[in-house]
Amino acid sequence: MADWQIDLIKVVFIWVWALLIAVVMTWVERRASAMMQDRLGPNRAGPFGLLQPLADGIKLFTKEDIMPEKARKILFLLGPPLFALPAFSAYAVVPFGDKIVLGGKEIILQVSDVNIGFLYVLALGAIGVYGMVIGGWASNSKYSILGGLRATAQLISYEVPMGLALLTIVLLYGTFSLREMVLLQQGTFLGFLPNWGIFKQPLGFIIFLVAAYAEANRVPFDLPECESELVTGYHTEYGSMNLGLYLFGEYVNLGTLAAITVSLFFGGWTLPYVDMSKFLGPVAYGVASFMVFFIKQAFFLFLFVWVRWTVPRFRYDQLMGLGWKALIPLGLVNLFVTALLVQLTI
Amino acid sequence: MATETVCITTGPADVGDYVSLNIGPIHPAMHGTLRVITRTDGETILSAEPEIGYLHRGVEKLGENFTYKQFLPLTDRLNYCSAICNNVAYELAVEKLLGIEVPPKAQLVRTIMMELARIADHEVLVGILGVDLGALTPFFYLIIQREEIYEIFEWHHGARLTNSMGAIGGVEAPLPDRFHQKWPKMRDSIRRANDETDKLLTHNRIWMDRTIGVNAFCEEDALNWGFTGPMLRACGTRRDIRKDEPYLMYNEFDFEVPTGKHGDVFDRYMIRMLEMEESIKIIDQAYAMYQEMPDDAPLMKKVPKIIKPPAGQAYHAIESPNGELGFFIKSDGSDKPYRIKIRPPCYMIYQAFEELVKGEMISDLIACLSSINVIAGELDR
Amino acid sequence: MSLEQRIKDCLGADVVEITEFRGDVCVEIPKSRVIEAMTLLKEKAGFDFLSDVIGVDNMDLYAKAKKAKKKKKDEEEEEPKKEGPPPPRFDVIYLLLSLSRDERVQVKVRVPEDDMDVPSVTGLWKAATWPEREAFDMYGFNFTGHPNLRRLLMWDEFEDHPLRKDYPLEGKGEERHLNYDTV
Amino acid sequence: MPRRPVVKKEYTLGERVYLVEIAKGLGLTWKHFVFNIKASFRKGPHTVPTCWQYPEDRREIAPIFRGAHMLMLNNKAQELCVGCGMCAKACPAKCITVKRGKRAEGEEAKYAGKTYSASFQIDMLRCIFCGNCESACPKNALVLGPGYELAEYDMESCIYDKKKLLANYHQAKAEGKLKPPKKPVPVDAPPAPKKPAAKKATAAAKTAPKKAAGEAKTEKAEEKSAK
User: Fold this and answer.
1) Where are the domains of chain A?
2) DSSP assignment of B2-43, as one string?
3) D213 found inside a domain
């Protein structure tokens, strides 16, 4: 197989994988929230209601696509894809496994190991804002525009602490490549802890996680679409598959953020204390590393759901306060301390 | 009580740059059919004008054309969260007009049912407040308890929501077997659900930030605006009609009246949480008294089949879950009331809505609306 | 001192009539003295809380009384005809409450049909804002001095006053047409 | 301009840092999550506290539930309704229309009374299920039954006629959901005032209640002394 064929397969695989996660997440969200709230959730479509996302998809596709009369037509249609595509694209640099040997060829389980993968992720996260803002503005509705405004302010504000938290990681590992970062997390730290980012950067992890919640518009930071105040915020006026794209994009975003959290702070596909490559065959090792990665990612996806159904929502000004008054100073302090420690130890 | 106050200053609402935002009548957070026309500067509210009447059904006009018995089912449709309180308030008003007092056993049954309704109402309110502030989960923990309470209602008089409980002159049935079987367990489960809500919300900083100091209101203003019930008690006035002008047998029960300090959303929430506990206490005491009564103790006062109160007018108020619920009835001696005026508690509170939310943010408007517990049914009548 | 006595002492000559029914004291005051009497009640007698403002249309009551009288007259056929000016058609009843004493009093003002002006008490209690608007809506009282006397429950274009006794229960076929801005 | 009391926020350290309380909350929802996961695998209806899987599992309905109306028959399968129209009078929604018919010769097996309801219609679109008709019925012939599935495809079938009302009865009887006979409510009556067929009900109402009120008071006093 030529390299481009392999790349194509990888792209398709990651695309399907991202979509699958998004689809299954809609089911997990509904069922898990139901279980937390003493309910059952959707359980009629298929076994355990597993076909519910499919039913939802069919429903969304068959709905009439309504466009508000005074909407900006092109921008209105541009909004949803602009929101969903960056979320998908960010998967490209996620290292979802170590390597697998197929047909005598060693294949790295990552679409492309860009040496600035890390910046790529941040940049794509920033593009996602446009989807919301444009969608909110183009619908020509006050609720939508408020949602869009909130989204802009929130996402731009929380990009700063996120960047700060990630900078410390960069300082620590001395690289921008996500794959190298994962590789550097093998072994142990202080003799007994896994050599994971979270143990080296606990504060950075918390800041990153909070910022990730804000980036993903999840409760407690779901202000752009907070249902009780702004109806559904920036996608109030959307229907049919345009709405579906927004909803899917959100879950894809969750998947990306979970994957990056795992890669940066939880050792990616590596297992602590155990080196799987030593006692597994080359094919089995590839699959196993992917599975390890997936389990870790699934935990974070579940955490997103779990937190959502536990806490209330922030108010707009409090959200900004948290971002600018707490997270950014903390992030700066963390950055300086880390820089100092790195400087002293090297 | 002199609390430190500040004047809320916002820009003028009629000049300059503002966005007029029409919230409701179709909006997820507008309980029922409320509508608020706001003018906002960014997210800050410059003015908020509530518009009501979307659910106006002319209950008072209907009442003038119905007999006294026929009007009872209509009172269910006022505050549908605690229909029993409306029923009993109306019955008490007519009984006052007739000059009768129902037998003590019937009074106890009414008391127990009313307190159960109060718990149900407060549970809905606290749950909805959580939902509007983004926490959906406590709502479900509370709503299960409400279902249990509704089951008791169903076994007592056959309906869950629109109860039409009792009749003028007493109640039709003693406490149902379900109540005897379930109450000890239910008491614990209500307490547990409240504890869980407490755990999820009260000390959570997000919740505290969202509620403490939001829509704080002065005591004098509250009295001037005619606030009653938990809203007034949250401002610091210890007023509860059950204590101050006891009706039924409330003077024989031992219970506390929780009061707040600032009249903010948090105080209102806490007062309702505490009142549920007090209601449980009242039910326990009433139940103990009820059990001492003989089985064949009368439940009904003998009233004529066609109720014709003597000409005159009377006003009777009870402490409904939201405040003073009064029925003013003027009789001309015929079998139909000459004039019925309902004094719904949330009506008086909701008229101060602009004062409550001015200078706050849109999110606080939603929180304020939920914490008032505006029920469109009794607001518009 | 009984409640009636205290109110009498407080209001003095303003009291037209005090009645008591089932423990509810109702004091009638002349329409022109509403603000003065209410201020006295609020500040001197301690009735510091306004519960509600209620409008009543007495039309049917008078018609009934007249009918009964006529019946009687037909039976007896003796009574001389004595027709004074018609009694005022409407009542406005203020429900006052004293928070410190936990007493309630109803203050009644009689309003004739040809002079619907009633002084507004919103200056004393803001609580009267909506009840007065509602009374205007339902009966057509003109509360002078009210900051915002518009219809409350019925829509703005509505012309009648539905709680008047001569308004039919089924309505007069009014329908609300919303004019949306369709530009 | 509205005034606002100044509220000083006093948070403990645990509250200030968000995470402690959120962790507690997470623990609570996790507890529910595990409990419900286990419960949802259990067999039987209503395993999870809030949910009834409706068409398959049904809640137990109280025997006195106020649902769809039914016209009762007595033990001899005779119709109890005499078509007096008291229910129509008592109805606040004015949804009942009754026509009275005289029992003809040879119809004794069908009707219990000398008259019967020639037609009986209840407009279920207007009905508010208050139960006034049931309590007004002198023969206990009209009863609000256990039926609560009232959805229909067209408006005509929402107007229940006699056939439907009797069918409701038969269905409820087959399911064993008929109401137990009503227990008479103990009434606290003044010692029967012997009045020659009180025409002036107002007068009766004026005198009787006062007596009654007095009695209630003495009763209360007795009860207190008994304690």
Assistant:
1) 3-345
2) ---EEE-----SSSSS-EEEEE-SS-TTSSSS-EEEEEEETT
3) no
Number of domains in chain D: 2
**Letter for the amino acid at B298?**
P
> In chain D, at which residue ranges do the beta strands (DSSP E only) sit?
3-5, 69-71, 96-102, 115-123, 142-144, 159-160, 187-188
Domain count, chain C: 1
CATH architecture of B59-380: Orthogonal Bundle (1.10)
**Residue in chain D lying closest to B99 (CA):** D209
| B131 has a chain A CB within 8 A of its CB | yes
Region C134-163: mean pLDDT is 85
Query: Which residues does A146 contact at the CB level (< 8 Å), separation at least 6?
Result: A136, A230, A233, B21, B43, B362
Of A36, A227, A315, the CB nearest to B361: A315
Residues of chain D found within 8 Å of residue B101, distances taken between Cβ atoms = 212-213, 216-217
How does pLDDT run along chain B (381 residues), one tens digit per residue?
445 666 666 655 556 677 788 887 888 777 778 888 888 887 888 888 888 888 888 888 888 888 888 888 888 888 888 888 888 889 888 888 888 888 888 888 888 888 899 999 898 888 888 888 888 888 888 888 888 888 888 888 888 888 888 788 888 888 888 888 888 888 898 888 888 888 888 888 888 888 888 888 888 888 888 888 888 888 888 888 888 888 888 888 888 888 888 888 888 888 888 988 889 988 888 888 888 888 777 888 887 878 888 888 888 888 888 888 889 988 888 888 888 888 888 888 888 888 888 888 888 888 888 888 888 888 888
Residues 6+ apart with CB under 8 A from D121: D96, D97, D98, D159, D160, D161, D162
- Same domain, residue pair D19 and D99: no
Same domain? D94 vs D170: yes
| Interface contact flag, B52 C126, Cβ < 8 Å | no
Chain A, residues 6-45, CB within 8 A of chain D, namely 32, 34-40
B223 vs C: CB within 8 A: yes
Chain D positions touching A38 (Cβ under 8 A) are 32, 36, 48-51
Can you give the residue range of the structural domain that contains C36?
3-117
Extract the tokens encoding B241.
């009609």
- Judge: A40–D33 Cβ closer than 8 Å, yes or no: no
Residue of B nearest to A32 (CA): B137
Q: A36: which chain D residues are within 8 Å (Cβ-Cβ)?
A: 29-30, 32-33, 36
Instruction: Report yes or no on D179 lying in a domain.
Output: no
Query: In this predicted model, what pLDDT tens digit does every residue of C16-57 receive, in sequence order?
Result: 788 888 888 888 888 888 888 888 888 887 888 888 888 888
pTM: 0.85
Residues D88 and D165 in one domain: yes
Asked if B268 reaches chain A (Cβ–Cβ under 8 Å), the answer is no
Q: Where are the alpha helices (DSSP H) in A40-138?
A: 52-62, 73-89, 117-138
Say yes or no: D22 and D74 in one domain.
no
The answer to whether the CB of B368 falls within 8 A of the CB of B263 is no
Q: How far apart are CA D191 and CA D211, in angstroms?
A: 10
Distances (CA, A) of A60 to A65, A82, A245, D150: 9, 19, 10, 31
Count of CB contacts below 8 A, B vs D? Answer: 190
Residue of C nearest to B97 (CA): C22
- D50 — contact with chain B (CB < 8 Å)? yes
The 3-state DSSP class for residue C68 equals: helix
Q: Which of B64, B101, B153, B190 to mutate to test the interface with D (most CBs of D within 10 A)?
A: B101
Domain ranges of chain B: 59-380
Q: Which residues of B touch D128 (CB under 8 A)?
A: 73, 162
Question: Whose structure tokens read 């002198």?
Answer: D138
Which residue would you say has higher pLDDT here, D163 or B17? D163
B residues 4-33 lying closer than 8 A (beta carbon) to A: 19, 21-22, 27-29
How many A/B residue pairs have CB atoms within 8 Å?
Answer: 78
